[in-house]
Specification:
Rossmann fold; 265 residues; 8 helices; alpha/beta; single chain; 6-stranded parallel β-sheet
Length: 265
């Protein structure tokens, strides 16, 4: 059985690990406080490094890495050169602001990785040619339509700095807009989403720049979760319906298993 260590929990680790185990891959995941701020990973699924310095953190990572066939690093790219010096096979996975508009700055890290993955297509802008898009998996058992909920004919927006644009899109579709502050616990999202007919998927980054998706993009994690709940999703590039099959967790895990197999050949 292939043994994989996932370093730093971006919240999707538990879902990937669950599906990969069905494909005969043993996954251990370690995280750091703050990397899963919305509580995506169940408490019983967490292993955390409560270490007081980078040195002690890295010693812990090394100790675990040497017991596995491959290390899948989420965002914490600074550990990649260290792992490669030890002879580890490394998959480096970026998710957003960790690399957006920072590809050249981060070159000393990602150039050492065996494989570079990104979780949204717009992160390929400026990326090296060998970077690959791996769709975000959505927990379809958790995010699904709830026929017992009374739907409000309104658009939900979780505020990622673009409420003004969300209001314009809602008005364009003759919908009232319900704005909620970000930080909603993960377990509460399906209940919230299932109260509305639409979700507005627009964001600005930390610098205030609008994140514009291409028509072929499937949107943010929240947008995908809304699609999985049966909502209509409004974006700058168009209206979307239904969760694309590529985001089914078993499909993502199968694609990732093929990537692991290639790295270990």
């Amino acid at each position: 059985m292939m043994r994989v260590l996932m370093v730093w929990d971006q919240g999707i680790n538990y879902l990937l690990a669950r599906e990969l185990r069905c494909l005969n891959v043993s996954v251990n995941s370690v995280s750091s406080p703050g990397f899963d701020p919305y509580g995506m990973t169940p408490t019983e699924g967490k292993r955390e490094y409560f270490l007081g310095s980078k040195l002690r953190r890295n010693v812990g990572i090394i100790g675990d890495a040497l017991k596995h066939d491959l290390v899948h690093v989420h965002s914490l790219d600074e550990v990649v050169p260290m792992l490669k010096r030890l002879g580890c096979r490394v998959v480096l996975h970026y998710h957003g602001s960790d690399v957006r508009n920072r590809w050249m700055e981060k070159k000393k890290y990602w150039e050492k990785a065996d494989v570079i993955l990104v979780s949204t297509k717009n992160l390929l802008d400026g990326a090296p040619p060998r970077a690959k898009f791996l769709p975000n998996p959505i927990d379809v058992d958790m995010f699904k339509p709830d026929p017992d909920m009374g739907l409000h004919m309104a658009a939900l927006y979780i505020d990622y700095g673009a409420a003004d644009l969300a209001a314009e899109l809602a008005e364009k579709h003759d919908l009232s807009l319900i704005v909620k502050e970000k930080g909603i616990p993960y377990q509460e999202l399906p209940y919230l989403m299932n109260r509305y007919t639409h979700y507005v998927d627009v964001k600005r980054d930390e610098g205030g720049h609008m994140l514009i998706s291409n028509p072929s993009d499937t949107g943010s994690m929240l947008g995908l979760q809304a699609l999985s709940c049966g909502l209509t999703v409004l974006t700058i590039s168009g209206t979307r319906f239904g969760l694309p099959p590529e985001h089914q967790p078993r499909s993502v895990a199968a694609q990732l298993k093929m990537i692991y197999d290639e790295v270990l050949r």
